[in-house]
Amino acid sequence: MTSYGFTLMTELHGPRELVDQAVAAEAAGFDFAAMSDHFHPWLEAQGNAPFAWTVLGTVAARTERMDLMTMVTCPFLRYHPAVVAQAAATVQILSDGRFTLGVGAGENLNEHVIGAGWPSVPVRHEMLDESIEIMRRLFQGGEHHFRGEHLTLESARLYSLPDTPPPLAVAAGGPDAARLAGEAGDALITVAPDPELIDAYREAGGTGPTYGQVGLSWAPDEEQGRQQALELFRFFSGGWPVMSELATPAAFEAATKTVREEDVAELMPCGPQPELHVEAIRRFEEAGYDHVAVVQAGGDMNGFLRFWEEEVRPKLG
Fold first, then answer.
1. Disulfide engineering: 189 pairs with which of 17, 23, 53, 171, CB 3.0-4.6 Å?
2. 168-171 and 152-156 beta bridge pairing
3. Can the peptide bond before residue 103 be classed as cis, meaning omega within 30 degrees of 0?
4. Which superfamily, per CATH, for 3-316?
């Protein structure tokens, strides 16, 4: 049976709004909430980027049933994996064991801010692998040291540990990262309904949940849905190779200047017809994903949550 999640998009909303949305999403019946972790928004029009971990702590205190996760955090460069492990352990305690730590190899948009350069894809995967090893060691308790090719840990111990460490879900945009998720992670995250990524994850030994994320642009009419998708969500039109490499919101603005409404409408359902949104979600289920997080492109979250509860969720079975 599929579990459905609501995405708390830090690029699009301020911290108070995100907390209120989490409470409302739980009331609307969502099984989990997934939160992005950005230093910058993708586009200037999105206009937000609060600190995800502060918001997560508040969400953990304000919700009771819904599982929580990052989708996703890059645990190196802008952070050190020891700091991410400490943050994740704290949220796991505050949420009474409802937290999953979703990690990935990051985007230049967020990680370049510390001035350490932007590594190549193979190096980023190596750094992610080392980060996972460091975090797993710290979750075991006791003092730990680590010296890898890229990362070092010196005499570190987490003193506030949850009874059960948070599972580690690994994001993958291609088969190499999916294999890393199978080898080092507890779950797989992707943003495309691609069964080949699940196959790569399983073949590498992955036995855990598979998470997909799908963009939706609900609005009272189709034209408004298309307009808000263009204004706020055209950043993903170039695909992951572009999304991971551009450094600033201004660069995304320039790179997507010629994207049209119809281009974005081909990539995500727009408007009030529930069947279109159900079809987009079903693609992930048919590809084999057992968890699907939805992302609403517009600002009217209360309207979207009513739409979800009354018109979309009943059709999903």
1. 171
2. unpaired
3. no
4. Luciferase-like domain (3.20.20.30)
User: Distance (Å, rounded) from C-alpha 127 to C-alpha 119?
Assistant: 9
Q: Which of 11, 107, 111, 130 is catalytic?
A: 107
Largest Cα separation within the chain, whole Å, is 58
State the Cα–Cα distance between residues 83 and 86, nearest whole angstrom. 5
Q: Which of 38, 112, 144, 291 is catalytic?
A: 38
- Residue 93 near residue 129, CB atoms below 8 Å: no
The tokens for 100 are 């999953």
**Dist CA 260 CA 273 (whole Å):** 21
d(CA 101, CA 106) in angstroms, rounded, equals 14
What's the pLDDT band for 299 if we cut at 50, 70, 90?
confident
Rg (the chain; Cα; Å): 19
Identify whether 150 is a catalytic site residue: no
- Domains of the chain, by residue range, sit at 3-316
Q: pLDDT at residue 43 above 90?
A: yes
Angle (CA) 32-69-247 rounded to 5° is: 125
Q: Residue 191 to residues 136, 257, 295: CA-CA distances in angstroms?
A: 25, 23, 11
Q: How far apart are CA 67 and CA 236, in angstroms?
A: 26
pLDDT in tens, 235-256: 988 888 889 999 999 999 999 9
| Mean pLDDT rounded to a whole number for the chain | 97
Nearest to 135 by CA among 119, 116, 148: 148
Catalytic residue list contains 133: no
Tokens 């702590």 — which residue?
A: 57
